[in-house]
Amino acid sequence: MNRSEFLKLAFGASAGIVAFRSFGFSPSQAEGPFKLAPLPFDAGALEPHIDKMTMEIHHGKHHKAYVDNLNKAVAGTDMAKMDIEALVKSVNAGTPAAVRNNAGGHWNHTFFWNILGPSGGAPKGALADAINKKFGSFDNFKTEWGKAATARFGSGWVWLIKNGNDIEITSTPNQDNPLMALAEKKGTPVLGLDVWEHAYYLKYQNRRPEYVTAFWNVVDWNKVGKNFG
Ligand SMILES: [Fe+2]
């Protein structure tokens, strides 16, 4: 079965055509300062928790589209000279929506790929201590995380953020993140979860809680621990 046939099966014939178009099946990357890095692991490495096709589409189509559209949005402006983190931090209410959405999309997905891995397990060291202090236990932390993930209406992200020695769970709509100047709750992301349907629909359909539970099998706690510092 090729991808087009799969999408027709998954979404129905007419929706399949729409999905095919929205994934932007163009082979080349748009010119510009921002680049799509390869996934730091094989696309099938997170199976069965996150399937290979979802990873290929999520990275190669969705993330790529954020990068391409960001390059278009900043073309000819001073923003084209900024690194992605500085650009994301600068996002405020006056920032053009195309920059806000696509800079956030690029930063968020890059961050997400780099906290994932086939390892699973549990937090260690100072991060484990901080989680136990704040939430009582890792299990309680996972419960609170699940509540935030299911409470986020529509598309968005769930975050564990750090402010000094304090950590907390927060969530953002669309491709916003806690680094942005306009974020209601700011902090440095330590862990993040994409709860857009494109992150889980092929395998989990509307069952976001199952995807959120499966996520714990593919968190690389060594990398998350480094984000905590
Ligand atoms: Fe995503």
Write structural notes for this entry:
With 229 residues, the chain is mainly α. The protein folds into two domains: 3-37 and 51-113, Fe,Mn superoxide dismutase (SOD) domain (Helix Hairpins, Orthogonal Bundle); 125-228, 3-Layer(bab) Sandwich (minor pseudopilin epsh fold). Helix content is 48%, strand content 10%. It contains ten helices and three strands, in the order αααααααβββααα. The chain has helices at 3-11, 13-22, 52-74, 84-89, 97-113, 125-135, 138-151, 201-204, 208-215, 221-228, and strands at 156-163, 166-173, 188-194. A three-stranded antiparallel beta sheet has the order 2-1-3, sandwiched between helices. α1 packs across α2, α6 (125-135) crosses α7 (138-151) and α7 (138-151) runs antiparallel to α9. The relative contact order is 0.13. The structure holds fe (ii) ion. Residues 58, 62, 109, 194, 196, 198-199 line the site of fe (ii) ion.
